[in-house]
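pinging the channel bc i need a second pair of eyes. not urgent but kinda urgent?? the chain im working w is below, pasted from the shared doc
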Amino acid sequence: MSDRSSQGAWRHRRVLLWVTAAVVTLGFLVALEFAARHYGEPGPITNQLKALVLAPKPGPLYGGLGLMMVVLTWRQRFIAAGAALGIDGVLLLVRWAVDADMTGGHIFGTGALWVMLGTAVIAVTRRTGPERVLLLKGVGLGLLLVAARKTGDTWLFITAKTRPTVLDQYVATADHALGNPSWLAGRIVEATDPFSSHLLQLVYGQLAVAAVVVAIYQLRNVTVERRFPSHHLVRTFLVIGLLGPAIYMLFPVVGPVFAYGPGASGTGGVEWAAANLWPHTPLPVTTPHPMTYDGITPRNCMPSLHTAWAVAIFVHTRKAPRALRLAGTFWLVVTLAATLGFGYHYGVDLIAGVVFALTIEAALRSLDRGWDRPGILLVAYGTAVFTALLLSYRYLPTRMAAHPELSGPLLVLAMASVIYGYVRTTPRPAPRLPSPRPPVEEAAPEDATSGEQEGPAPTPTPAPEPH
């Protein structure tokens, strides 16, 4: 009786947790919607509803569909994919007939959203019990990926509107401690263009695709086991994307190509830059000040979330097959090169991004397996290091630039200490032992001479009497 009552209480708490998370998420989306509309732009809810009719970006929607299909059988997957492509094909003909705007390659994607919503309807109306719960979890996972993209876009828009001044001069001064790596990487990319720029842009722009591939591999057994693993990459990705923009609001930075260069991607410009120095002229060490910037360019530099997401991919591929491990390593290295080489980030942003990612990953793993003392200490230590990094960038940049031989190694050592703590705290996979052989049954001594016959022993024949 006590076991049943404890199991019922655990289920009740779990239901309350999910309901609370859903209410908080809905409230957060509504708040973002009102904030975006206050500045004259549609929010994430409006943009998501528009995607039911208008042509959206196909990547996030089909990525979400791929994640949802981990709960389906192979036959159901083919049906879902075919239905999504068929719907997009019909809508493409309709949009072409009415001469709808399809600029930017926004042609497919609505079909994937319709299939996910249709699967949710099937789960509610045609499924019961654990099957319904599993199917709804799959739909929720796919829609979360889509909503995260819409939410991120709105967050970036809000950072540009609510933070008119940026702290790039502080970060650029602190970056002298590392030798201004973005300036060096920018010149290398320029010297090896166009090969390097095409490769870096491909990897940098398709980070979400790499994450979906790794997540699908981690969730490959959901259909067979009928349950999700307790921890996977999608959780880390979503938490990084949720918490990162909050740091953007506290520490607004636009990046060296915008603050000290000609801008990029049609935003920013020399008229807003402190000086046109990136990447050829080393930045002079001066007393930093907050500077005004435009209301368009996102303040999405500190910390580097591209670095944090690439670190998460790298961490989650360590137990994967060799090809996926190599791909995770390649994606991490090239992403770091792209963030610096394109002038999107300073070197100190990358250090903060690594610490940020590992601290979140450690917290999620501790939440999964239980909060023990090493996990609590690691999360507290990572949080303290991350806070100390931001404070040093803001209040000690000139001293860091004046003593790079001391401050540079200290920055790297602080990051390395968090990496070391994570490696020591995270349990390693158990070694694969050879399968035990079945014991060989030895014949009993009395059976060795008895042959294969069973039953009573034969009656001995009496010897003939002597004559």
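so The longest strand covers residues 165-166. and The beta strands are 165-166, 291-292. — does that match what u expected or am i reading it wrong
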